[in-house]
Design brief:
Order of helices and strands: EEEHEHEEEEHEHEHEHHEEEHHHE
Shape: globular
Radius of gyration: 19 Å
Oligomer: single chain
Structural class: alpha/beta
Distance between the termini: 35 Å
Number of helices: 10
Helix content: 25-40%
Number of strands: 15
Strand content: 15-25%
Length: about 300
Amino acid sequence: MIYTVTLNPSIDYLVEVENFQMGLVNRSCMDKKYPGGKGINVSRVLKRLGNDTTALGFLGGQTGEFVKACLEKDHIRTNFTEITGDTRINIKLKTGVETEINSHGPEVSMENYHHLLSLIGELKPNDWLVLSGSIPTSLPRDVYETMMKICSGRKVKVVVDTSGKELLEVVHYEPFLLKPNHHELASLYSTEIRNVKDANKYGQKLLEAGAQNVIVSMAGDGAVLITRDKSYAANIPKGKVINSVGAGDSMVAGFIGMYEKTEDVITAFRYSVAAGSATAFSSDLCTWELIEKVLPQVSVSEIKGG
């Protein structure tokens, strides 16, 4: 089973307004609501790839019920910890450019927190655990490190998609996969990543610190996969970018979803890039059909010379 953790989920309320004007009444020409949060996005894409997945995290109130109902409608298993506050609503306003208004989110009690930790303590060998997204301010900042400790030595494959201090605190527990983008990786080492060679160089540092595999996404410049044996670069398929939300989560889902089926890192990497691109070319998260459509454009080559 592939478990995902979303500590601060949301309803993502997408609103499109033509000729938006500040201070006046504006009318939307389109609006949609989606279950939001990085871990939830991973679960949604995994299901579209045909993988079994269970979404964990914190939900509360009528907004939380909406998120849960959406996932269950898509036949995604859920085992959320119920909290007293309302799950947040994030607004994505499209007016030629995209503006995001992200809510703070509800408070999570220590009782809620320890309940989630107990669920993670029930994971079995060969299960997957995906840790991604923001941490509520009411929780300890070492949440991901604590979860890694619980999984350490139990043959649970842990995937971490976070940045900054939280990423560095978990890397020595040997996560199966880390997925920083090039800006996040550059920030870790106070440098600038301008090309594939730079991404490989600094991605290698995460392997030296303990990670088993690292994917560095580089927007239109492709992506780099660093394993303990070799490093690889992939190009990005051609297409019109419509939506940037969830592309990185789709890359995570594409990689682990196909690796679980094939245990082949090259195949998993190609599907990772295809899934991320397919989401970028869509108004919502990618579909299996669009992933298969763009996959032939994704080529992977080994990076020589370290």
